[in-house]
Amino acid sequence: MKSALDCIPCFVAQALNVARLTTDDPQVHERILREALRRASEADLAQSPALFGRGIHRLVRELTGQEDPYLAIKQESNRLALAMLPAWRERLRAAENPRLAAVKLAVAANVIDFGIKGDLTAEQIPVALESSFAAPLMGDVDGFFAAAERATDILFLADNAGELVFDRLLLELLPRQKITVAVKGGPAINDALRADATAAGLDGLVAVMDTGTDGAGIVIQACSREFQRRFARADLIIAKGQANFESLDGCGQNIFFLFKVKCPVVARHIGPAVGSLILHRNVPEMAGRVAVPPLTGAREPNSTTENKIKRKDKVMTPMGDGTGPLGQGPAGKGMGPCGGGQRRGWGGGRGQGGQGRGQGRGRGFGRGRSQGGVMQPNPTAPNDPNANKPN
């Protein structure tokens, strides 16, 4: 998904929060804040919020000399989560629907986020987790487990340290022999690293790898080639956390996003309100597999895929090759957030007041699917001349 104007003050606040976490020097705080403001003024809002956030946190590490400003916070989060784990395990075991409870807990634990909520303390986590768990879950739990059973190769994208401890209870209910858990390859706010996966007890439970890069979310062109190939060959991806949704929404992969909606920008984009627990499936219209060669760079996407949650904004299922929604069929290139891989696609579409068909051929880079597209007009703005334009 794209960034929005509302993201800019959030970026700046995160920069100031982590600056104060890292040092007591007000001159350093001012230097970081001024640079964050400069970068925010030049931000490309076509990029995902995760990409801009990565630059802000790298800036803070460079200016303070702190390699991992959240290290102590992550260690305390792991310790606290492990202390809470036995009681939660018993609650799930006694639940009327343990699978539903395990998914809810994994999503509720996404509240352990020191990026968006910089003033969160370890003492607040138990209460915040209980409150989050009490919220209803939006999504198809049975469909999620059925998809996991059918899959042959599952990639689980971890999010925060501490949160990963509770993910373990979900992983124990999934076909673990098919699963590889991916953590970050370098410091990214309080996202889990390999040490956090070990602390969570994942060694020997599932395979573990890292992305080969820092930064919240998944910017596929910045990741290691090993991870890019692993990402491309997975026939099911489970992505934890809002940053993974921000960076991978619209990707031509079969992805289940599990996250808590934490900001109005994401709420407007996907539909449910801030605070909602989301199990959201990103499903390509055509599920044919694509052979993906070693990857090269790719630009950030600007489209979104159709999903099982009704959105408030207009939705268009993207074509495999970048063709338009009204059937004109211009040739073009499609470069998706999933990185490299070439494919051909044909697209047809319908327009208001009638229909027309067209087709176009193009080559694009991305683990996309060849598919047609259907545009849904925005019911909330029938008089808006831009309402029926694609994203």
Order of helices and strands: HHHHHHEHEHEHEHEHEHEEEEEEE
Largest sheet: 7 strands, mixed
How many whole angstroms does the radius of gyration measure? 21 Å
Shape: globular
Question: pLDDT average, as an integer?
Answer: 75
Question: How would you write the strand order of the largest sheet?
Answer: 1-7-6-5-2-3-4
Low confidence ranges: 285-336, 339-391
Q: Can you give the helix content as a percent range?
A: 25-40%
Per DSSP, the total helix count is: 12
Question: What is the terminal separation in angstroms?
Answer: 10 Å
> Which secondary-structure class do the elements indicate?
alpha/beta
Count of distinct strands: 13
Strand content: 5-15%
General description of the model:
- The chain contains twelve helices and 13 strands.
- It is of the alpha/beta class and 391 residues long.
- The protein has a seven-stranded mixed β-sheet, with helices on both faces. A two-stranded antiparallel ribbon has the order 8-13. A two-stranded antiparallel sheet has the order 9-12.
- β5, α11 and β6 form a beta-alpha-beta unit.
- α4 (71-94) packs parallel to α8 (163-171) and α5 packs across α6.
- The radius of gyration is 21 Å and the shape is globular.
